[in-house]
Amino acid sequence: MANIGVFYRDGFDPGAYTLALFHAQTAVAHTAHTIGLYTFGNDGLETAAMQAPEIDGLLTFGPSSTDIKFLQNHDRPSLVCERIVPGCAYVAPDNYDMGRTAATHFLDLGHKRLSVALPGDPNTLDAYHGTRFVGFQETAAAAGQPIADDDIFFGAKEAMTGTVVAETLLARRDLPDAIYVQNLPMALAAFQTLTAAGVSIPNDISFVGTTFTQLNAPMATTHTVPPMTTVTFQKEEMGRLGVEYLCDAAADPTVSPIEVLLPGILIRGESTTAAR
Q1: Cα(249)–Cα(44) distance, rounded to whole angstroms?
Q2: Strand locations in the chain, DSSP E?
Q3: Which positions of the chain have pLDDT values less than 70?
Q4: Separation of alpha carbons 207 and 168, rounded Å
Q5: 159 — phi, psi (to 5°)?
Q6: pLDDT, tens digit (0-9, with 9 covering 90-100), for 92-139
């Protein structure tokens, strides 16, 4: 029997990971294994883990660089969800493939001038959204449709950035064929701003956003008019695969750490259509 601890920092928003946690619990529901939730403050993950000697395996979200160093040298099995961490077991989205999936969808529809909006600073992009951006950009370029610098937008990870992107496009009076907005609040705001200005989606511009399955609630993108086409990944697999690995590793120290990348999945809505 393994006792698995799920650790996350005080103030960390678990909302986006509720689905992963639910499926982690489901994975052990009819077994002898157990799961406990642990939070920690400024003392860090190492202190929290040392104060829980009963834990046989650690599953964590959003680790800091100090936390990662601890995990890489810790003797109990551990796994990081959502991020690729060299030297650690992990289950994470294949962000490159998510970007590739969005670009391929547009290209298959015959669109030539593609645009993309994402959170972050172009000089300091993180591996998460940055890798997704590279997947989109390289796929378009390989198809002979490189993305112009003027059609690439960066900004804060908030709805206002989506509004600014849409207003910039409207001011040009020259919309791209299609746009991929990587962050959900940004996508919803950009979508609303475009449609409120009279832009017909998808007739004037095809639109792809990002969303994730939620517990006991429909995805937000089903409430847009028209329903938004999105790229996502199976977030529930993070919890299930992570806990299954930790239970196996706790029972058998020779089990190799897993390195799982979850591919991009296109969810067809009505916000994309063939080029005209």
Answers
A1: 24
A2: 3-9, 34-40, 57-61, 78-81, 89-93, 114-119, 152-155, 178-181, 206-210, 229-232, 259-262, 265-267
A3: 13-16, 213-219
A4: 16
A5: -60, -40
A6: 999 999 999 999 999 999 999 999 999 998 888 888 889 999 999 999
